[in-house]
Design brief:
Blueprint: H1 3-22, H2 27-36, H3 41-62, H4 64-67, H5 71-94, H6 97-130, H7 140-155, H8 160-171, H9 176-201, H10 206-226, H11 232-251
Helix pairs in contact: 1-2, 1-3, 1-10, 2-3, 2-11, 3-9, 3-10, 5-7, 5-9, 6-8, 6-11, 7-8, 7-9, 8-9
Length: 252
C-alpha cells in the first residue's frame, strides 16, 4: 500500500464517518475507494464494515444528548437490528462471491435513488408527522422493517441510515435529531455484529480497516458536531458520482 493509497483510504473514512453520523451512506465513499485500489469486492466490503464500527461509536457519543430518554426504545429496536445484522453477515459469507458482485450493483442503485429522493422523503415524513400518523413506540411493522434493514446493512449497508431514518420517522413521535441519534446507534450495531462475524469468519484487510477506522472516528465526531452544515445538494451529487463509479467497477 502506497502513501497515496493510505491517505485516500483515510480521507474516505473521514468522509464516511461524517456522512454516517448525519444521514447514512458513508459506504458509498469507502467501498469504491477500496475497489479502485484493487481490493476484491467481498474483501473490500468486509474490511469497510469492520473499519466503520469505531466511527459509528463516535457518532453515537456525539449524539448522546439526543439519546437521553430513549433507553427502552433503543434496547427494543436494537434486538431487531442485531438480529438482522447477523442474518446479513451470514448471507454475505455463505453466498458465493459472484452473487455479491451481481447483487450489490442493484443495492447501490437503490441507495442512490433513496439519496436523490431524500428531500422528497423528508418532506413527506414531515407532513405525516404534522398529521399525527406516528407513535411513541415502534410497532410490529416497524420492528420487522428495522430487522429487514439490518439484513441489508449486514450484507452491504450503503444508505442503511436513510432506510432507518424513513422507518423510524414513520413510526415514532419524536423530533428528527433524536430519531437521527437512534438511527446512528442502530446502524452502528448492525456494523458491529456483522464486523464481529467477519473478524472470525472472513478475510479482513487490517491495513485498510485500520485506516477507515481512524478516519471514521474523526468523521463521526465532526459529523455529529457540525455535519448538518454541509450543503445537502452538493453532498448528494458527490455520493451519486461515487456510487456510479462503484457500479462501473463491479460490473466492468
Amino acid at each position: 500500500m502506497t502513501l497515496l493509497h493510505a491517505l485516500a483510504i483515510l480521507g474516505a473514512g473521514v468522509v464516511a464517518g461524517a456522512i454516517n453520523a448525519v444521514v447514512g451512506s458513508g459506504t458509498l465513499f469507502t467501498f469504491p475507494v477500496l475497489l479502485a485500489f484493487g481490493y476484491a469486492p467481498v474483501v473490500a466490503n468486509v474490511s469497510n464494515t469492520v473499519g466503520l464500527v469505531p466511527g459509528s461509536a463516535a457518532g453515537a457519543w456525539g449524539y448522546r444528548r439526543e439519546l437521553t430518554g430513549q433507553r427502552a426504545r433503543t434496547l427494543r429496536l436494537s434486538m431487531a437490528s442485531l438480529s438482522g445484522g447477523v442474518v446479513g453477515g451470514v448471507l454475505l459469507l455463505t453466498l458465493p462471491a459472484s452473487a455479491f458482485k451481481d447483487i450489490v450493483p442493484a443495492f447501490i442503485i437503490v441507495a442512490l435513488v433513496l439519496i436523490v429522493l431524500q428531500p422528497r422523503i423528508s418532506r413527506a415524513l414531515a407532513r405525516r408527522r404534522r398529521e399525527g400518523h406516528v407513535r411513541e413506540h415502534a410497532g410490529p411493522a416497524a420492528m420487522a422493517a428495522v430487522f429487514a434493514s439490518g439484513i441489508y446493512g449486514g450484507y452491504f449497508g450503503a444508505a442503511q441510515g436513510i432506510l432507518l431514518l424513513a422507518i423510524l420517522s414513520l413510526s415514532l413521535d419524536d423530533n428528527l435529531q433524536r430519531i437521527n441519534a437512534l438511527k446512528v446507534v442502530l446502524a452502528g450495531l448492525v456494523n458491529l455484529i456483522a464486523g464481529v462475524i467477519f473478524v472470525f469468519a472472513a478475510h479482513v484487510n487490517w491495513g485498510a480497516a485500520a485506516l477507515i477506522a481512524v478516519g471514521s472516528i474523526i468523521g463521526g465526531v465532526l459529523g455529529a458536531r457540525g455535519g448538518r452544515r454541509l450543503p445537502a445538494a452538493a453532498l448528494r451529487a458527490v455520493i451519486v458520482v461515487v456510487g456510479v463509479f462503484a457500479i462501473v467497477r463491479l460490473v466492468g
